[in-house]
Amino acid sequence: MSEWKRPFLYVVVCAAGIADDVGKLITLAQKQEWDVGVIATPQGLGFIDAPAVEAQTGYPIRSAWRSPGAPRPLPPPDAIAVAPATFNTINKWAAGISDTLALGILNEAYGLGVPTVVLPYLNAAQAAHPAYQQSLERLRGMGVLIGEYEAHRPKAGGGRENFRWEQALELLGLVSR
Ligand SMILES: Cc1cc2nc3c(=O)[nH]c(=O)nc-3n(C[C@H](O)[C@H](O)[C@H](O)COP(=O)(O)O)c2cc1C
């Protein structure tokens, strides 16, 4: 009989002000029997406490591509949560641009059929740009699950208290694994 393996969740962290709360999502996922690995965008790395996140997950944070021939630092994902997701990464992902490791993983996840959820975190001035709504539509059409978030006021920061990290797991619960 084969041994049961905990499913593996990739949490993709972008450079948004609340990224330092990502430990909340890791805790929630681990409580629900997921193992977790974090992929940060290069900018996102500066927004999180990397040693604390690595201690919590037990895996190195990935941000850059590995060298050819080097072993893969993380197992393949059973699901991916992009949280928080920036304006920048959402638009590049929808356009199929892979200029960060995080985007490379997201762009391939579609073809691999990996269930993926995105929790945007951005301000109203960013959300007003027509490219953003088009990007969300395109991602929705690709089967990406999109969390609800009301954009916060420009230049005001904030919105932290309205950001529901648990939505990532709630939405992933809708897909079979
Ligand atoms: C303090 C700070 C907070 C930021 N917060 C956000 C944010 O909440 N949402 C967003 O889309 N961009 C935010 N940005 C801008 C992004 O960091 C910037 O667009 C960056 O290029 C995103 O890179 P990434 O998508 O590769 O992580 C913030 C920048 C700074 C300096």
Structural account:
The structure is a single chain. The longest helix is centred in the middle third of the chain and has 12 residues. This protein has a single domain, classed as 3-Layer(aba) Sandwich (Rossmann fold), CATH 3.40.50.1950. The chain has seven helices and five strands. It starts with 7 loop residues before the first strand and ends in a 5-residue tail after the last helix. The protein has 177 residues and is an alpha/beta fold. The chain is globular and about 45 Å long. A five-stranded parallel beta sheet has the order 2-1-3-4-5, with helices on both faces. The mean pLDDT is 93. The site of flavin mononucleotide (FMN) has 15 residues, from helix 3.
Question: Structural class of the helix and strand makeup?
Answer: alpha/beta
* Rg value: 15 Å
Report the order of strands and helices: EHEHEHHEHHEH
Biggest sheet, spatial arrangement of strands: 2-1-3-4-5
What is the CATH homology-level superfamily? Flavin prenyltransferase-like
What quaternary form is this?
A: single chain
The profile of the biggest β sheet is: 5 strands, parallel
The count of strands amounts to 5
Percent range of helical residues:
25-40%
CATH topology: Rossmann fold
Name of the top-level CATH class: Alpha Beta
Pfam family, one: Flavoprotein
Protein name: Flavoprotein
InterPro entries: Flavin_trans-like, Flavoprotein
Domain Flavoprotein: 11-139
